[in-house]
Amino acid sequence: STATISGSISVGVMDTGADGAKAGVAHLGNGMNAINIGTREDLGGGLRGGFDSQIRFNAQTGDVNSIGNGNALFHSINTFISGGFGTARIGKIVEASTCGMDPWACGGGAALQAGVGVSALTGALAASNAISYTTPTINGFSAGYLTSLTGPAERTNERETLNINYAKGPLMLTFIDIKGGTNTAANGAFGAAISAPADTPTKNQAVGASYDFGVARLSLVNSVAKNAAGVKTANITSIGATVPMGAYTILAGYNKAKTGTGYTATEANDTKIALGVNYALSKRTTLGADLFKAEAVNAGTGFLVRARHTF
Description:
Layout: E1 2-15, E2 24-27, E3 34-44, E4 47-56, E5 76-83, E6 86-94, E7 126-134, E8 141-148, E9 160-168, E10 171-179, E11 203-212, E12 217-226, E13 232-245, E14 248-259, E15 270-280, E16 285-295, E17 301-310
Antiparallel strand pairs: 1-2, 1-3, 1-17, 3-4, 4-5, 5-6, 6-7, 7-8, 8-9, 9-10, 10-11, 11-12, 12-13, 13-14, 14-15, 15-16, 16-17
């Protein structure tokens, strides 16, 4: 078999614009600060097997930043079999997400989920005790399903993620439906106590689309969350644009959020705009800077300068 190691680090200096806040070193984009280890083996007859894993770290301190019940070393780790039928996995698996509709690709920076405010990001958590299946791509269409299997004695509302995608030419479409709370609690503030895993029949749905016009790529995503009673708790819409200009890339985003049970928490509603630029020093090293403004309680105009290196 063949083993590969890859990863990246993304870190910067950010001022969130919150009242009384000061600029400080910022860990940017959880998946952007990670080490990936995987293997691939040709089993013959068009079949392949192996495993994928990811260790996430805090770029500020070097501490573990992988989601789990405790200080989990691996954010995800699973074995798979793939072939003409698709791909089947078992273990701890990262679910599908709408990251592809974010001009910052969920890489932190002034991406619409960073700084101050709420995000249209749906999915991207890691479910432990899970199995998943992804179909092959046929005429641009593909789909995937993930579910956790911890047993009825432990959890009633198992995490389930269904995603349907279309990608052909310049057009990309995605639909994501998530049911159940997460079955792995996130690490706290790097050493803080871990909360119990959620076990609630919550729901989250998102639809997204993007189109590459050549001179610019535009994207749109809408995410709606409901609580256990079926009442909407969030309705978030994001519009983004990516404009390549040689070594430079211009990034722009607009985010509108309505939050709170029945949208009653109007003070939490947030409109956020962000503008950024990336400069590629090489294929592996990129510098960037962003400005963003959030209209919410204890929010304001923030800035960020950042650097990312991949290997």
